[in-house]
Amino acid sequence: MSEVTPPEVIPPAESTPPRPYSAPPQPLSPSDERTWAMLSHLSVLANLVTGFLGPVIALIIYLAYKDRSRFVAYHSLQSLVFQLIWWVGGGALAGVAWAISGVLSAILIGCLLMPVALLISFIPLAALVYGVIGAVQVSQGQDFRYWLVGDWVRDTPNN
Q1: Is the pLDDT of residue 38 over 60?
Q2: Domain of 72?
């Protein structure tokens, strides 16, 4: 009896599925750039209600538009860094100052430190005003840089 050999099975050729075409991101119009840059500076106002969402909003704007507009990327990253330093850092510093003056109020030194703690408490409020000033200038088409932060952000590789 002869053996029947099965026909040779050829495995299917491996093929990679075609990748969907993704068009490069379309650049924003100048008015849209000014609007998103203004909103990134105004995100500092979200801190009034939530206490912490301002930097998150600036980060979301940065991630969404960094490939479409260098202008929006610069201003949103600048707003993010500014808020982290002056709102979050200033708020933490104010809390520490009030805690120290409260603990030391049992002796006269704590009472003398309360005006200093009150002045430190104005740092986050000054950050709010400065952020609104930045938003107004950017919406009018002017270049705006936060003091110290703007130069540092401009020197980052993506800007």
Answers
A1: yes
A2: 30-89+126-152
